[in-house]
């Protein structure tokens, strides 16, 4: 069973003006689509891996045959990262978190403002291409920058939500102003979905 590009759960223009429609279309259809195609091409060389989930593959990369390991890391990571990314955003999102994730944020960071500053700094400070992730590490909520298409599952973490800081995610609208993009991105968040992911992860 091949991996599939999940449909975007809203229109390309749904996150305007924070993320422009052209960026969303290229990002989802071409970038994410290419990660899925490359991942499937690699898995085809090792049919014995066909039944594994993307989390299983990335959570134990040492068990992935060496000839496709880097391809699976980069393209499988790209698939998982984006599959999560589309779902944790929504039209008219943002605002303050509530529920269990709000409690976890307060418990680990003291306040939503401090958490927001920490995740934004991790994302903006990630050198080159990568992501800023909020994830569970031994049950505790942490934030960290990850290079390329690496995902917290590769270090035993459980990804809750993250922000793509590859230039393809923001350059058409924000050019080099990554910090402006990250600051605006908070206005897209779907806290109900983030709560659902947190509840499932803990
Ligand atoms: Mn991307």
Question: Could you provide a short overview of the structure?
Answer:
This protein is mainly alpha-helical. Helix 1 runs antiparallel to helix 3. The chain has eight helices and three strands, in the order αααααβββααα.
Describe the structure.
The protein has 202 residues and is mainly α. The protein has two domains: 21-87, Orthogonal Bundle (Helix Hairpins), CATH 1.10.287; 99-201, 3-Layer(bab) Sandwich (minor pseudopilin epsh fold). It is 49% helix and 11% strand. It has eight helices and three strands; from the N terminus they run αααααβββααα. It has helices at 21-44, 54-59, 66-87, 99-109, 112-124, 171-174, 178-185, 191-201; strands at 130-137, 140-147, 158-164. A three-stranded antiparallel sheet has the order 2-1-3, with helices on both faces. Strand 1 and strand 2 form a beta hairpin. It is globular, with a radius of gyration of 16 Å. The model has no long low-confidence stretch (mean pLDDT 97). Manganese (III) ion (MN3) binds next to helix 1.
Give a quick set of tags describing it:
single chain, 202 residues, Helix Hairpins, minor pseudopilin epsh fold, 2 domains, 3-stranded antiparallel β-sheet, 8 helices, 3 strands, binds manganese (III) ion
Break the fold down into its secondary structure elements and pairings.
Blueprint: H1 21-44, H2 54-59, H3 66-87, H4 99-109, H5 112-124, E1 130-137, E2 140-147, E3 158-164, H6 171-174, H7 178-185, H8 191-201
Antiparallel strand pairs: 1-2, 1-3
Manganese (III) ion is lined by residues 27, 31, 82, 164, 166, 168-169.
């Amino acid at each position: 069973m091949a991996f599939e590009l999940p449909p975007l759960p809203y229109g390309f223009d749904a996150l305007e003006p924070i993320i422009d429609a052209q960026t969303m279309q290229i990002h989802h259809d071409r970038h994410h689509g290419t990660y899925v195609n490359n991942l499937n091409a690699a898995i085809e060389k090792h049919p014995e891996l066909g039944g594994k989930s993307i989390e299983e593959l990335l959570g134990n990369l040492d068990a992935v045959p060496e000839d496709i390991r880097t391809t699976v890391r980069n393209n499988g990571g790209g698939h998982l990262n984006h599959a999560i990314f589309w779902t944790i955003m929504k039209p008219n999102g943002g605002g303050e978190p509530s529920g269990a994730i709000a409690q976890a944020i307060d418990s680990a960071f003291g306040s939503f403002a401090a958490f927001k500053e920490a995740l934004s700094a991790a994302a903006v400070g990630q050198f080159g291409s990568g992501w800023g992730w909020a994830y569970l590490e031994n049950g505790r909520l942490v934030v960290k920058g990850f290079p390329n298409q690496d995902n917290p599952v590769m270090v035993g973490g459980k990804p809750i939500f993250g922000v793509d800081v590859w230039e393809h995610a923001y350059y058409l609208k924000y050019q080099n102003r990554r910090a402006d993009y990250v600051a605006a991105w908070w206005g897209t968040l779907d806290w109900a979905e983030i709560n659902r992911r947190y509840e499932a992860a803990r």
